[in-house]
Amino acid sequence: xxxxxxxxxxxxxxxxxxxKDIVTRFAKMPHLYCYGxxxxxxxxxxxxxxxxxxxxxxAEGHLIKGYNLNPGQGTQxxxxxxxxxxxxxxxxxxxxxxxxxEPWQFGTIKAAYDGEGREVGxxxxxxxxxxxxxxxxxxxxxxxxxxxxxxxGSVMSRAISCQFGLxxxxxxxxxxxxxxxxxxxxxxxxxxxxxxxxxxxxxxxxKKLPETYRDQHAxxxxxxxxxxxxxEERLLNxxxxxxxxxxxxxxxxxxxxxxxxxxxxxxxxxxxxxxxxIDNSAVHQFWKAVEFLFDSGTIYDRDLMIRTExxxxxxxxxxxxxxxFQVPTKVLYVRFSNVYAxxxxxxxxxxxxxxxxxxxxxxxxxxxxxxxxxxxxxxxxDKRTSAYAFNYDKMEAVGIxxxxxxx
Length: 407
What we know:
The chain contains 16 helices and eleven strands. By secondary structure, it is α/β, with parallel strands linked by helices.
C-alpha cells in the first residue's frame, strides 16, 4: 500500500464521499484529518483522493489545487463557494493550523460536520432582499502539520484521524516507491474513470450501507467496551462509517487489506483517538493543573484532601442522603471555588488566555463518571465546610493522580 496504515481510511473516505448524500440520511459525514511534519506524505494522500474525483486540468495544465487556509488567502464567500460548488466530492483544505487560521474558518470546519452552511443576503436591498444558505455539499479533507486540540479537540472529534510520520518515508521499500511514482503518473493522465464502476453500485449502497453501518457501530462499541473503554459517540459514528464502507467495498473489489484486519486496526485507532480527546479536554487539563499546583504548594490541604470512606452524606435537592459503599472507597473532597481561583490565575499566567468560566467548568466536571455530588460539611485542616466529592479510585483509573493523601 502506498500510504501504509492510512491507505484503508483513504479508500473508505473516497467511497463515503462519493455517496455522501446517502450517508447523511442516517449519520453525519466526518472530515478526513491528515496531519504530520513536512514531507511525511499527508498532502500526497489528500491529493490522491481529490484527483480521483477531479482529473481535469486548468488552462495552465495544472490539476485542481486545495484551498489554502492561511490568513489573507481567501474570503468567507470563496471558502463556502468551494464547499458548496461540488456535490459528493472531496474539498481539500491545506495549511490547517488552529493557531494561525481565522476564527471563522475554524468555526466553518466545525459546522460543516453538522451540515450547517452559511447564511448570506441575496438580491438587492429592500423588499427583494432575501436570505440564501450556502450549503455544505462536499466532504472536507483537512491537511496540516499540527494536531488540533482547540475547543476540547472539537475538530478532532469530527474527523477520522490519519497521522503521518517521517519514519514511514525512511522505511519505504523500492516497490512502494515505485507504486507511489506510478500512482502520481496516473493522476496526471486522469483516474476519475475509476469512479464510474463505483457509481453503478449506488442502488446497492443505498440499500445496504445504513444496515452495514449499524452492524459495524454495534460491533465497534462492543469491542472497545470489552477493552475497557467508553468511546465518544462521534468517534464511533466516524469510524463505523469507514468500517461499513470497507465491508461493502470488499463485496465488489479486491482491497489491499481484509475487512477483519482493518477492523482490528480501527479498534486500536479509535481507542487512541478517544484517549487523545480525554487527555486534551478542558476537564482533564484542569485536573492536571490542580495536580501541579498541589505538588508545588499553591493549593493546600485546606483546599482538597483524600480520605478512605465507607459512606458519605450527599446533599440532593434540599435533603441530605447517606450513600454507602460496598467496599471502602477513596473520596476526594474539593473546595471548588478555592481551587478554581488558583487554577484560573495559573491558566491566565501560563497561556495569556482566561480560563473556562467556573460555572461552565463545574458543569462539565459534574458530567464525569467520578463525580459524586455536594457534601454539606467536611472537616478540612482550617474549618468545617461544604465540598464537592469525587470517587478518587475512578479518577486514578483515567490518569488523574493527586499524590498527597490523607487517610
